[in-house]
Write a structure and sequence with these properties.
It is built from 13 helices and 6 strands. By secondary structure, the chain is of the alpha+beta class.
């Protein structure tokens, strides 16, 4: 098990000078929800929603949280809405090394260990690695120490021309998938740190892809795989990302568990042989 100290997630843009109204309107428009539809969801009226958005009416703390819930606003941004409306933040941001999160950390470690020999890791809102299992360690063999220094960043490791990028046989496809994933998160979280990371990794030169020989027995992949070379073999993985349901803490809300499932029988067989 590899434990790496997580960096601080980038803070979102500060509250608008106009108070909570413009922020709520921006979230409603982002979600493509009309004032009437939001009013029906939140057991309010379109007139009241309009008054809140224009600043003619100050919403109660309960109303701010109710609207945020129905607009699926991230937990960190719900605190920003409350501050803009003149209320105290509702959701704490507990450091990962705080004793209050001991059970969480232990659970994550057990989960990743149980997933071995398949690779799995936990990242924060800016893709800094919180913890990873031995399957990930195997894939990182040969990566320069300069890229492995804390805080370890999953996007930087994957796309850097001295990282995993030269070994990824379908790099252009996989790179496009990762950049699109980051773009969606930037639109959702408005994180300056995530935007800076995106601009950094998007600017990396793309190494020439290695041979693109397909397996002797072509595989009908059920999702876009990452095809990566390891010790002369081509391993194929599809990834799955999980987050916590109804989190009550900013730190926990921004954790993501990414697991890599073998995309073909040959990859699964090789990983089990390595573990055995």
């Amino acid at each position: 098990m590899v434990i790496v100290a997580s960096g601080t997630a980038g803070s979102s843009a500060g509250p608008a000078d106009g108070g909570v109204g413009p922020l709520l309107r921006a979230w409603r428009e982002r979600r493509k929800v009309s004032q009437l539809e939001l009013a029906l969801r939140a057991d309010s009226s379109a007139r009241h929603i309009s008054f809140v958005e224009t600043g003619r009416s100050r919403p109660s703390e309960e109303m701010v949280l109710r609207l945020a819930e129905h607009l699926d606003v991230p937990v960190r941004e719900r605190n920003a809405l409350l501050l803009a409306a003149g209320y105290a933040p509702r959701y704490p941001k507990t450091p990962l090394d705080d004793p209050a999160l001991d059970a969480l950390r232990e659970g994550l470690e057990r989960l990743l260990q149980g997933y071995e020999p398949y690779p799995a890791l936990v990242v924060d809102a800016t893709y800094d690695v919180v913890t990873a299992n031995r399957g990930i360690t195997m894939l990182l063999e040969g990566v320069p120490e300069s890229l492995l220094a804390p805080p370890l960043n999953a996007m930087r490791l994957t796309l850097h021309p001295e990282g995993l990028a030269p070994r990824i046989r379908n790099l252009r496809e996989w790179r496009g998938h990762l950049l699109a994933q980051m773009e969606r998160q930037i639109a959702l979280h408005r994180s300056q740190a995530l935007r800076a990371l995106y601009e950094e990794v998007a600017a990396y030169p793309v190494p020439e892809e290695g041979p693109t020989d397909e397996p002797a027995d072509p595989v009908a992949y059920f999702a876009l795989p990452m095809r990566i070379e390891h010790e002369g073999r081509i391993l194929s993985f599809v990834s799955s990302i999980s987050t916590f349901n109804t989190p009550m803490d900013v730190t926990v809300a921004e954790l993501a568990i990414e697991t890599f499932l073998p995309a073909d029988p040959a990859t699964a067989k090789y990983l089990h042989s390595m573990a055995g």
